[in-house]
Write a structure and sequence with these properties.
The complex is a heterodimer of chains A (about 120) and B (about 220). Chain A is mainly alpha-helical and about 120 residues long. Chain A has four helices and two strands; from the N terminus they run αβαβαα. In chain A, β1, α2 and β2 form a beta-alpha-beta unit. The longest helix of chain A is centred in the middle third of the chain and has 18 residues. Chain B is α/β, with parallel strands linked by helices and about 220 residues long. Helix content of chain B is about 25%, strand content about 25%. In chain B, strands 3-2-4-5 form a four-stranded parallel sheet, with helices on both faces. In chain B, strands 1-6-7 form a three-stranded antiparallel sheet. Classes of the chains: A mainly alpha (about 120), B alpha/beta (about 220). At the A-B interface, α1, α2 and α4 of A face α3 of B.
């Protein structure tokens, strides 16, 4: 299965999406990331019971904050799939990339470049 | 613990607009437990403020620190040497911490980063409820360990009132009638006869109605 997905994506591996904290998402945007998406296991299938549900809550928190600071909450999204769904992983990568390309670059990144 | 709730970010943005260097100070005690003003919340607020002002094209430096407590001199002293470099401080402690900070660092504007709500418990993660109003005259010995001052909407000492229906208070279907809880527990403890005793008029002078309060303990005072 030699699937292709956009090479603009940087994968950060975590032991469980429950490890992803709100501050990790915000810092990514502060450093200039155009979008962040979290790919967790299917809801109800978390090996640690509720890691992916926690991640979903944090994604929602990040969306609310990013909307308020003018970055745009739509730049962060939660996806769920099982470990056997390689094609879906690639689909989500394409979907997110298209969404971000449509939205344009992170305004923080542009502001940082201007300030420099 | 003292329970606080987060202030909306836009409110905090309005407070600190115009400052160039601010310090966000968290507190490691109650507000950490109720997830409103601990180290994590300090980080999140600082990040949000940095992004907002960067996006607005305003240059602002936001530093972070979380103290063990903000209601004791020794911990607040930890920032004495650095406080002068900041134009303003946002304290994520309860109202007590914010005020103590403002008293101590008289020349530095100190802004509240949380809304302080009450003294209460964690019912479950994300749900906190009131248990004590600090009335200064604890009567829990007579009310089966359930406080009618903080949990009865009318603060009745001889309840319940006529608004108690099927164990719920008339102000909300989701609120237990404190006196129903008291009676249930007295029954469980086989102390229901105590319910017959009429509680005398409470001395409210020890409550907030008597003005700002103070505890002075000469036995431990130095």
């Amino acid at each position: 299965m030699r699937l292709r997905y956009p090479d603009t994506i940087r994968i950060i591996r975590v032991p469980c999406t429950g490890k992803v904290d709100l501050i990790h998402i915000l810092r990514a945007f502060e450093k200039g990331a155009d979008g962040v998406y979290i790919v967790g296991c299917m809801e109800g299938d978390c090996r640690f019971d509720n890691g992916n549900l926690r991640a979903r809550k944090r994604v929602e928190q990040a969306q609310a904050i990013l909307d308020k600071v003018g970055v745009g909450g739509e730049r962060v999204k939660m996806f769920n799939l099982s470990s056997g769904e390689g094609p879906r992983f690639a689909e989500y990568a394409v979907e997110m990339t298209e969404k971000i390309e449509e939205m344009g670059p992170n305004p923080i990144k542009i502001a940082m470049q201007k300030a420099a | 613990m003292i329970v606080a709730d987060k202030k909306p970010i836009e409110e905090i943005i309005d407070m600190v607009k115009g400052y160039h260097k601010i310090l966000i100070v968290g507190c490691n005690e109650c507000v950490t437990v109720c997830e409103a003003g601990g180290k994590k919340e300090v980080g999140v607020l600082a990040s949000a403020l940095r992004m907002y002002f960067m996006n607005e094209g305003e240059k602002i430096e936001v530093d972070e620190i979380t103290l063990e407590r903000q209601c004791d001199h020794e911990y607040l002293e930890e920032i004495r040497n650095s406080i002068d470099q900041y134009d303003a401080v946002v304290s994520l402690a309860c109202g007590v911490g914010v005020q103590f900070m403002a008293e101590k660092y008289f020349g530095t504007p100190v802004y509240p980063g949380v809304n302080t709500c009450f003294m209460g418990v964690t019912e479950e993660r994300g749900v906190w409820s009131e248990r004590c109003q600090g009335c200064g005259q604890c009567i829990l010995d007579k009310t089966a360990g359930i406080c009618p001052i903080s949990r009865c909407a009318k603060r009745l000492l001889n309840g319940p009132c006529g608004g108690s229906t099927q164990g719920k208070c008339e102000i909300s279907k989701d609120l237990d009638c404190a006196w129903q809880l008291i009676i249930d527990r007295l029954k469980e403890l086989d102390r229901l006869d105590e319910y017959e005793e009429i509680a005398p008029i409470k001395d409210w002078s020890t409550e907030r109605a008597g003005g700002p309060r103070k505890v002075v303990r000469e036995d431990v005072r130095q």
